[in-house]
Amino acid sequence: MPLTAAQCHVDDDIRRAETLPARAFIDPEFLDRELETVFRTSWQLLPESGARGDDPRPLEEQTASRGTRVPVSLLGRPLFLQRGWDDDTLRAFPNTCTHAWFPLVLGASRGPTLVCGQHGRRFDCTGRFVSQPGFAGLEGFPRDCDHLTSLQVAAWRRMMFVNLDPAARSFTDTWSEIEASLAQMPAPTDRLPSEEVREIAGNWKQHAWNYLDRFHIGYIHRPPGGLADAIDLGSYTTERYADSVLQWVYAARPEDGFDPAWLPERFHDPHKGRRVFALWWFVWPNLTLNFYPWGLSVNVYQPIPGRPDATRFLWYQWAIDREKHAQRDKRWLSSQVDAEDVDALAQVSRGLRSGFAPRGRFAPDDEHGPHWFHHKVARTVFG
Ligand code: FES
Ligand SMILES: [Fe+2]
Asked: Given this model, what pLDDT does residue 82 score?
């Protein structure tokens, strides 16, 4: 029996709310529903590698000139990016012909029109059907659905994002609080070669939940040498927005924090002179943008269709200051913290399957981030 809305209801009030049930983290049917709801209606970062052959250039560069098109893949769905021929607009389309569903773009190409390899249907760079042998004068043709569906696409800080839902909230609106927090910070444009893709244990939601959980820091990342040493845990702040959550905290040592001139007023600490250690932005449903004085670390917790108990972890880094980046392990052991989280979540995955995992409750002062997340998953999956 599929999980029902009642079994997954998460109360608006954190004092009454229960977590999603354990089954929502291991049930393939629930993951299918998430792919059709949560992941179909949210902004997703297009992975930089995979599906595109061996062109090592960033997607942004590959699609820079007029008329270029590049196939990409997002959570198992074939798409392609297309730069306009008569304009500079970047568009995204499903990579599926509207005639008999052959893939339209098998490799990167360029030109004013695109011809399907199976029966010659031709489209322009805006996705409009142009012609096809054998279809001249056919009544009621072309229909709206013979043109390609134009998907929302956005380029931000040299990363590309797509949203499969034409009615979804715009990228600019979704990112407005994030942009405002970064307005005074130099842009991290120096892409570091340390791109990583790996598979880790646990459902994608466990990783998002854990990211939003400040409660575990004092336990899992405890001193000595842990994250808990590097920060002033008592100052930890969670700001919740419609589609994003910001967590930030002051550094234990001022030299580990941001130059206050880089951040808006609300992050300043005129009395004690503390400096912000990091801006940890979570973007619904599975992206994290982690800003440090050295630059930006980007993580994506990608679900793997058909496999609810594993997550594909994508990791990219962009430097503002390579020197500071090289020294970041002197400040806190990010790889140690990462290993502690991966290990803890593998343990939780076993607990989930024990048959003795009741729905949890939330500590009202410490678990606002996790409550926001569980509530939003339940709302999005069940409408
Ligand atoms: S599938 Fe594309 S023209 Fe037939
Ligand atoms: Fe952690």
From this structure: 98
